[in-house]
Amino acid sequence: MPEEKRIIAGIYHLSKRLSRHFTLKDINFQVANGEFVFLVGPSGAGKSTLLRMMYMDDVPDSGQVIVGRFVSTRMKRSTICSLRRKIGIVFQDFRLLEDRTVFENVAVAMKVSGRGMSEIKREMTDILSRVGLYHKRYECPAALSGGEQQRVAIARAIANRPSILLADEPTGNLDPYVTKEIMELLFKINSGGTAVLLATHDVELVRSFGQRTIYLEDGRVVKDSGRVFEGDLLRSISDSQVERRAREFRDRRIGRGEKQDGTGNTNRPEGGG
Amino acid sequence: MPEEKRIIAGIYHLSKRLSRHFTLKDINFQVANGEFVFLVGPSGAGKSTLLRMMYMDDVPDSGQVIVGRFVSTRMKRSTICSLRRKIGIVFQDFRLLEDRTVFENVAVAMKVSGRGMSEIKREMTDILSRVGLYHKRYECPAALSGGEQQRVAIARAIANRPSILLADEPTGNLDPYVTKEIMELLFKINSGGTAVLLATHDVELVRSFGQRTIYLEDGRVVKDSGRVFEGDLLRSISDSQVERRAREFRDRRIGRGEKQDGTGNTNRPEGGG
Amino acid sequence: MSAFNEFKYILDESFRMLRRRKASNIISVIIMGFSLLVLLIFILVTLNISMVIDNAREEMRVYVYLENGLDQDVIERVRTGLYNFDSVRGVVFVPREEALERFRERLGEGSALVDDLETNPLPNSFEIRMKRAYSTGEEMGRIAGKIGDWDGVEDVRYGKDWVERGEKIVLGFYMTDFTLGIIVFLSIVFVISNTVRLSILSGRKSIEILKLVGATNRYIQVPFIFEGAFQGVISAVLAVILLWVSYKVGSRYLPGITFFRLDGIAGFVALCAVLGAAGSYIAIRKYLKR
Amino acid sequence: MSAFNEFKYILDESFRMLRRRKASNIISVIIMGFSLLVLLIFILVTLNISMVIDNAREEMRVYVYLENGLDQDVIERVRTGLYNFDSVRGVVFVPREEALERFRERLGEGSALVDDLETNPLPNSFEIRMKRAYSTGEEMGRIAGKIGDWDGVEDVRYGKDWVERGEKIVLGFYMTDFTLGIIVFLSIVFVISNTVRLSILSGRKSIEILKLVGATNRYIQVPFIFEGAFQGVISAVLAVILLWVSYKVGSRYLPGITFFRLDGIAGFVALCAVLGAAGSYIAIRKYLKR
Ligand SMILES: Nc1ncnc2c1ncn2[C@@H]1O[C@H](COP(=O)(O)OP(=O)(O)OP(=O)(O)O)[C@@H](O)[C@H]1O
Ligand SMILES: Nc1ncnc2c1ncn2[C@@H]1O[C@H](COP(=O)(O)OP(=O)(O)OP(=O)(O)O)[C@@H](O)[C@H]1O
Ligand SMILES: [Mg+2]
Ligand SMILES: [Mg+2]
Predict the structure, then answer these.
(1) What pLDDT shows up at residue B5?
(2) A81 interfaces chain C, CB cutoff of 8 Å
(3) Of B157-166, B220-229, B256-265, D110-119, where does mean pLDDT reach its minimum?
(4) Predicted ipTM?
(5) For residue D205, which residues of chain B lie inside 8 Å, CB to CB?
(6) Cα of B46 from ligand 2 centre, angstroms
(7) A101–chain B Cβ distance below 8 A for any pair
């Protein structure tokens, strides 16, 4: 299964000084296609900053970020939007459009990816039901509770079936029951072939799932429970069930006339130690 | 200890229809002076809405909210600011002033309470150190991580040593270590005589402390683990240690030439069942 | 398919934005509308004054005084000669009797003077009306010089002093008006472009979010450009309507003033649409660059 | 103590706000400054034209023609009588010889006519200069009527037609100017008040938060009012400076035009400060009510 070993996102020797107090130092890790990775660290460890670098809202001082076929050191500004349409992002502070309904907030992400209105309407029922907000689709964010807003942010991020989902604290405002549902949803999406990088401070949550976990502290990776291309991880990735689902998923997309996987054709060997 | 039995905040037969989907129905509970109460409920249960009613950002359709000497049904608009200066609020979405530094964000709450600049400067070191942000006092919110912003919000809420602190999900963006510290801080403040009403979905957190807990679900109080003036709770409130500290705290305030307790002179018997 | 979708979505987005940003749109349109009104008033006043000036210019005449006792054919030769000038529109022969009569009228209350005259001291003359485009002191001076040398012509006069003084005043007016026009125009441009900036300032956050979810610059930009064009059209129409109402009221007191022509108004509205769009485009660019 | 603190904090807050809302302040000041510039231009033009009109009015004279062969004491009696009118500023006696000389000059190129005269048909006369405030057709008509009945006075003339025609034109100008002035003034008021609204629109969120932490309305309001006053002052000063530069350039071509007096400018700036403050106060009220 060589296809599964592809790296969908890689961070190579990334350093970034944000202030006198905080610097990301020589970060190195890669996320394989279809992998589920937790990024854990205390408040202010640099999780959000790292993710920001991955959706190229900020540029590293040195080092490289590669996501799909997009390379941070060779990016033109005009291609950033193509990158962002290929990935899903849950922002820690939600970033919902205040003046639009739940439906429109999710639809806008689908629209910018060029998807048709009938398709959007067809899929919206499913997407919003998954986060339990279908009955609130015509409400504006101001009329939603914190947890509901967070779920809108999640819905928007998964709406385009991205090849990789960057989720920053996606369950911070959710109660245990909804948290469980959302995590199940993320795993389901993951098992459909989408890589997930989930930043959280909730060590309990991380422990309970036993996935690969990258520990960040004060701007450094202090531990990485799994390395792509290392024996045990490879096995877990190429798990036959996951693989089958992934293939089904891709086939469906081809059936819709889309390119096979716009972000998946970079096969870059691991750069950092 | 009759003084300790005073009710600092009471909600009596409160009902409020927010939308077709959600109504707060006949809410009744009281918080005693110096009490620590958890308000727990799933996402969308109405916790934030209930708190909003307590700082009178919204008015009930029926029923009454009494906080200190302020009665929702007899409020003039111009006294709302007096109420808010007597209570501390941690908003779920932080509500920091984007264009001001951490110091200014906290100072503004102290300034509107009419406290002198030298006093503000003197106390700021303590307040910001408590939430671990003294070294970031000149940063603006945009340069802070989610957890750091949340701690600024907490610092602002406790800056005026309010008689009651309404905290909406104050640890939602914090890692376990900081969460523990913040909870200890809140208990310390509480043991100084400040009543705390803490809304959260984190049942684990609630359970680990064993305080009085009000369970909210779909706009109804489904369980209240303690009732003010009921035997066991009374004992826990009038705990001699807490009481001593409370007295010390009040004495200090009197020493600074402030009124003894502007919000504490309503002695209203429990209204609802 | 995707291009069509993009077009549809951008259009859709544009219309929605007008509704969403209603408050800021209304405020902007009021600012722009009243600014444009001031500009239009300035232009309309200039237009009307220059029409008055043109009319006054048309009133100017060159007088060719003939020698006494000329033969009819000499007179006719002069007349033909006058018509040969490109700049001459019409020629009228004024017999000396009529000239005296006119002089008497012009003196008005001093006409008793004429009655005291024993003989008519005035000569026969031709009165030349110039073509509008040639009604300048220069041209009148030029032909006066030529005509003066002809046989049978005693003297040529065209109120040199008056014409020159008048032209100086008119030049002064146009200079002032042009200077003020530039200042007023630039002021309006500054007011409107800054209104657009101020209005877009409040949309920063949405722009930011749209960029984060992968919207192309076009998707973000076009609705704002559309909004700018819309504001331009509505405020132009508002200005024209207000001006027209003022004109209707004003023309009771000052009959004879003219309004803009319909094609001018259409052009103005179109220009405002283009400028509104361009202003929005320029204002939004800096938020997209980062 | 607390009142002093509040005062200090509000002042402090006000100054900080100017720095914080710099972009929106600069934009607002540009909009307001250029709007005010247009208003000032309008006022300055009106002022200068009305000064020209006043000067022209001062040139008007009433002529009192005396009968022929009057005694010197009759002439003196008329002179004394003329000086008795409140509205008369000066009286000059014009002997008939001088009158003829003046007439010759006025005819200019037609002066040959005068040479043909055998006797001087013109009478002695008094030329009356009116006081500025009374230089109206009405007043001149009134005293002309009275003087006409006096002994030794043959006739009184004051160019009735011309004066009336001139007054009609001046009235037309003032009517038009006044109407336009109102429109321009209202436009500027609308532009500026809406600019304030647009500018405060972007401060909504801070207002909301300040209310939630218990700030009094005064604490929230005063900085905005201060900002409004500041914008008013700066934009007024900007407008005056720009106008002064244009004036300096313009006065090369049109020497003799006047600028505003210093106290007028000071008053204008003060007025703009007050209006800016009032505008902000009105604009912010609605956010505080909720
Ligand atoms: N724009 C900035 N300028 C200066 N410092 C910044 C900036 N953004 C973030 N920082 C600092 O960088 C550090 C890491 O921030 P980051 O948001 O990445 O933390 P985090 O791991 O996401 O924490 P949390 O769990 O609290 O969200 C923090 O100390 C923060 O103060
Ligand atoms: N302004 C509003 N208009 C209509 N519905 C509202 C409004 N505000 C809140 N609601 C609805 O009321 C319900 C309760 O909201 P609230 O914010 O109180 O929940 P919560 O208990 O704080 O949840 P969370 O833990 O997710 O923050 C939600 O379903 C929300 O959609
Ligand atoms: Mg973060
Ligand atoms: Mg909430």
Answers:
(1) 64
(2) yes
(3) B256-265
(4) 0.83
(5) 98
(6) 5
(7) no
